Amino acid sequence: MTDTHQVLIVGGGTGGLTVASQLLSRDDAPEVAVLEPADTHYYQPLWTLIGGGVFDKEESARPMGEVMPSGATWIQDAAAEVDPEGGTVTTRGGDTHGYDRLVMAAGIQIDWDGIPGLAASVGQPGTGVVSNYSYDTCETTWDAIQNFPKGGTALFTEPTTGVKCGGAPQKIMYLSDDAFRRQNVRAGSRIAFMKAKGSLFSSPPYEETLYDVVERKDIDLNLMTELTALEPSKKQATFQHLESGEEETIDYDLIHVVPPMSAPDFIADSPLSDEEGWVDVDPGTLQHTRYDTVFALGDNSNLPTSKTGAAIRKQAPVLVDHLMATTNDAASANGTYSGYTSCPLVTGYGKLVLAEFDYDKEPEESFPFDQTEERYSMYALKAYGLPRMYWNGMLKGRM
């Protein structure tokens, strides 16, 4: 064994760094190590607006060394195996690290190979295949939007699996509609949303607004319809209608693909996982249901809420509270996570619906006005306010 840490955090994304910062800011701060292989940290919520031509992609990136919390030990390697019985994590590099408390914040795995034809074509010139779900490809979405032909067909997909930010698959569609109108290519063109789930959005009050947006923008909505294959050389996409089982092949000029996603393999193959591969935690305390020294938050957990950075903002203090209670042998901790999540639903340039809701999909809102309405103020919050709050507040343990 290389060493043992009081708290070992697997993952240097939003969840991992937020928890590390909050732990280290305490008067009774434990020793903290963060296991993270990447050199760069990304503010991924900005990728939708990068795909829509609002920002350059470089604005979403910072060197990992600059955002790693002061006082944390950065282990620049990736987790390969977790042994909760032995209290160790083994890395791809072959090192084994022990822990007193383990925080799983490894994010979600994007399965680019899950759709035949996707991995080799996404972001490549001439294919029309784009995706905002990668730093390397998000700017190519804007390139494709700018070169969209008059009378063309633009398809936007969402898989059956859980995805990062459940609203992102449709936000870029609304921006594209606005862009096509500005470019005078929307008339006679088709925009279609091919969503493999049965509803437009998970929280009904906000879904009503989105149905109005879809109608206003004349978008062809196809629920229970999943992308199964691409033929980029022909610019054709094959979909399965999940209720009937029938398949349909559609010609496209642009297709924004949200790839299927899953729990990271090393988690799904570990004793920490539930039946679907996610880290199995109590929805109120974020403590593992079987291993008392293990906690999890964010995308790699099985918390029954949307996988968003805003959810982590409310999850992190609860996790820290319960983790430190077990460390200090306290009788109980005070925090309980309600399932709060937020999805800033961009419905066009300068328009946004700020959806905030709990486990029951009921609104849990922050502002004293009707948040189901499209507002410029909420768009400005997403575009200009939230990134600053993220870099200067959340990652530093101040929120």
TrEMBL record:
GO terms for biological process: sulfide oxidation, using sulfide:quinone oxidoreductase. Residues 6-120 form the FAD/NAD(P)-binding domain. Keywords: FAD, Flavoprotein, Oxidoreductase, Quinone, Transit peptide. Its cofactor is FAD. It holds the Pfam family Pyr_redox_2. One of its GO terms (molecular function) is sulfide:quinone oxidoreductase activity. This is Filamentous hemagglutinin.
